[in-house]
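Lecture notes, unit on protein representations.

Consider one protein chain, 293 amino acids long.
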Amino acid sequence: MNEIIKLEGVSKVFKDFWGKPKVVAVKDLSFSVKEGEIFGLLGPNGSGKSTTLKLILGLLYPTRGRISILGRLPGDNLAKRFIGYLPEEDYLYSYLNAREILNFYGKIFNLPPRVRKERIDMLIRLLGIKGYEVRPAGEYSKGMARRIGLAQALINDPKLLILDEPTNGMDPIGSKEVKDLLLDLKKKGKTILISSHLLADIESICDRIVILYQGKLIASGEVDSLLLPYKGESHSLERFFLDVVNRERGKEKKKEKREIGSPEEKKPQGGAEKKDADVDKELLQKLLHRDES
């Protein structure tokens, strides 16, 4: 099976005004996304998920390592034609309605007028926008704006779909409809990379996942295999996620204690210093006594 996305030893270091390293957002990250699968990118806030997506899309450049997407470098114009992207926040022109927004993005991809109209009609029906498509985007609810965002990510019929929190702000019905749509797209051979905090959604649709923590990869594999020890439990991906993240946090705390030193470790050191001081005092007294004699 072809690798649609591949990261090899990727690191991203953000520097301060003086060019000195300030934040290591991603550290030595390696994983691949295979053709025709739904792949989940997970991690707590600040773990490097958004940075990773931006690196894959060519919006940021890696400090070290190599990334390929659809067999090309990130940001390659030919590769962009086959990518659909939904960012975490919706950036819609508030004065345009759904049809106008989708028509605008269709023109960006140089779609012929007939193809644009067919795609727009299909996406409006498919994503439950029918009846709302003539209202300005500024009047949409968060969930409806999300549907429009997903429609614009699909307007070019992409081979690769990259989604950042796709069901954010949606009600349970809308969330279920989006998950069903993604599973249907997978059946049609689409590759989907999805980042989400809604672990129940990830568990129900993803084939494989990676979990990031502090910019490092701490777990990866097929969802069924990773959750085997939690079989029969409810919210099993949530349990697994919390276990691996808390394990890393525990390692961090132990490391901090070793670096700072516990009170028990400091006591012998203090005793040694007192002993050295007593030796120095005794030596001084001997020298003074010798001078007097």
